[in-house]
Write a structure and sequence with these properties.
- The structure is a homodimer of 369-residue chains.
- Chain A has 369 residues and is of the alpha+beta class.
- Chain A folds into two domains: 134 residues, 3-Layer(aba) Sandwich (Creatine Amidinohydrolase, Chain A, domain 1); 224 residues, Creatine Amidinohydrolase.
- In chain A, strands 4-3-2-1-5-6 form a six-stranded mixed sheet, sandwiched between helices. A four-stranded mixed sheet of chain A has the order 8-9-12-20, covered by helices on one side. In chain A, strands 7-10-11 form a three-stranded antiparallel sheet.
- In chain A, strand 13 and strand 14 form a beta hairpin.
- The radius of gyration of chain A is 23 Å and the shape is elongated.
- The two termini of chain A are 44 Å apart.
- Chains A and B meet through helix 3, helix 5, strand 6, helix 8 and strand 7 of A and helix 3, helix 5, strand 6, helix 8 and strand 7 of B.
Chain lengths: 369, 369
């Protein structure tokens, strides 16, 4: 990404490594590598890693076919390329010859086992640990260049949501709604969908992570629409639930309860408040309404270069919210074999309070065809 | 997936585990888990694993919010669910209490480091190893139900390629071509794109894994179109290179060389032939043509539940090709700052010979607007 101060990020990272006594950080394609190097790629079976020795300069070990791209998109000049057919583990070992004495080695939380085991063999004396704490600390508070991307990304996602709800009608198949979602995201400028979209109608909505299938949308269905897009490496993630043709009393009651839980939780999310308090606030509303057993997941998750990242809005997290944190607030109620309702906003803590980045309306909508 | 004999796959897997003296196999969301359990999910930060003890029955450890889905989509009855807020590592340890004495533990090659380290702590005496060899052996020869999916998936991808080439014209932006690709894939029935599509025009084509950007397509460009879709968990992956308005002599020469390399390699791919021979055949054509230094990747990769899997068509792989193997043949020539050409087919070994699953024409095409 342009206008990002990568050497500055490395300097900050190195300070964290010193504080935590980490000798070497090894990253893998994914959000952490993108954050630290500017290089955006999906993980694969070929060894591709960025090495950050606390007492040295960063280097990258890459398959030859990525060499040109790494130089173009990244800022790290020391790039060591291996060719298809080479022994990857041996090549890695060579590049790490000056690392033989290192003790505390932090590996990217997403590094595949095949590469973890290569590092394990290359550094037999090292204590391997999960770099997740370190990297999440670095990434948890968004910088101005990141906030600006997230803001524009959520405006674009609002446009996509409007287009999707606009086009919804009885008789459509969930799969077609999912296609509409993807097209609306692309039309709004996304590089890709954040994840396989959720278009869960009627009873399918009672599985929080159901995606879409061949069910036909019917009058009286609650339809859970949960999707997001990737914009310059950053993700969006929003959910609205709408009703087709009519909503019965139970559906209305459940909807209003979820909406109130969402609003009370957003209101509770202030700088200095522990994350779990926000979860408790949402849960209290739903429990008081009699549906506590049907809110079966945490209230939210941070978002940025990952769809799910710190801070998690969950019981047990005493982490105080801070200026610049971005996360979801997404209470839901799931009634098996009947329907589900979820309302998800992404909020940013600014001037001490959580403010919604996505603005598509949350009021109960009954769509008549 | 329906009509798949999962207990039969487990029986075959167990026989491999016995032969390789593996006590426990732990899988993670991804192709291996889909193959063995029927459950299709993307990897995430929550612990979700399928455990196959050689001397016991399979069980799954899942986040509570997936419990219903795992029961619906999978065949494994023993599902142990943990709730957000629980200590995942401790929960895993409990579920593995009967595994304390196990020595040889094979982990899914894609398992994230965070979970590898949890297993490492839960089984301090165990030798952790990469399950890749085991799983690839199981998956390398496709069964009839898999071949039938791959066949239909490539017919659909042919339709998408035809639609994309049909719509191509000067003045378009690469990004729009990428959107056209995605729409064409969805219209052809794909559940998702296999990977971010490649629409690399002019000089961008010289980076094999460049995706797309804001470059405007111009007369005289070679345009590399490389994409595929996911169909019922199985992937397609095809490449064609077309020219806009005109193709100069160098472009024509390079194109015909790549085409000949593709054809000679497909012809060389017979049951019993070592995989590296197919790579050598493609490379020989290109080297004899004077462009050996510009064919900077292997000739191909297997395909199925992964876009890249065994068998790899690469120097050093002496593995004989077998009936039922499916893989790509994709030679390319990359001239930095000028252009690139790649022609990629997916072939299936049947009746002793490689036959193309994708049939969109390979002849040099100059598109006039």
């Amino acid at each position: 990404m342009e206008n990002v101060d990568y050497p500055g990020r490395w300097k900050r990272c190195r300070a964290f490594m010193e504080a935590q006594d980490i000798d070497l950080l090894a990253l893998t394609p994914g959000p952490n590598m993108t954050y630290m190097t500017g290089f955006l790629e999906t993980p694969g079976e070929r060894l591709l890693t960025a090495l950050f020795p606390r007492d040295g300069e960063p280097r990258m070990v890459v398959p030859a076919l990525y060499e040109e791209q790494v130089h173009r998109e990244g800022w790290i000049g020391d790039v060591r390329a291996w060719k298809d057919g080479d022994d990857q583990a041996a090549f890695l070992l060579e590049q790490m010859s000056d690392a033989a004495g290192l003790v505390n080695v932090a590996l990217d939380t997403r590094m595949w086992a095949r590469f973890v085991l290569m590092f394990h063999r290359a550094l037999p004396g090292a204590l391997l640990q999960d770099a997740e704490g370190l990297m999440q600390e670095l990434r948890i508070v968004k910088g101005p260049e990141e906030i600006s991307i997230l803001r524009r990304a959520h405006e674009a996602t609002d446009r996509a949501m409007a287009a999707v709800v606009e086009s919804l009608e009885e008789g459509q198949v969930e799969r077609d709604v999912a296609n509409t979602i993807r097209n609306a995201l692309m039309a709004a400028g996304a590089d890709a969908a954040s994840f396989r979209p959720i278009a869960a109608s009627g009873p399918n909505g009672s599985q929080p992570h159901y995606r879409f299938g061949d069910r036909v949308l019917r009058r009286g269905d609650a339809v859970v629409l949960d999707f997001g897009g990737m914009f310059a490496g950053y993700y969006t993630d929003v959910t609205r639930t709408v009703f087709l043709g009519k909503a019965d009393d139970t559906q209305r009651k459940v909807y209003e309860l979820v909406k109130e839980a969402n609003e009370r939780a957003v209101d509770a999310a202030r700088a200095g408040t522990p994350a779990e308090e926000v979860d408790r606030e949402a849960r209290r509303v739903i429990t008081d309404g009699g549906y506590g057993d049907h809110f079966i997941h945490r209230t939210g998750h941070g978002i940025g270069l990952e769809v799910h990242e710190e801070p998690y809005i969950v019981e047990g997290s005493k982490r105080p919210l801070e200026e610049g944190m971005a996360f979801s607030v997404e209470p839901g109620i799931y009634l098996p074999d009947r329907f589900g309702v979820r309302i998800e906003n992404i909020v940013l803590v600014e001037d001490g309070r959580a403010r919604r980045l996505d603005r598509y309306p949350r009021d109960l909508q009954v769509i008549s065809s």
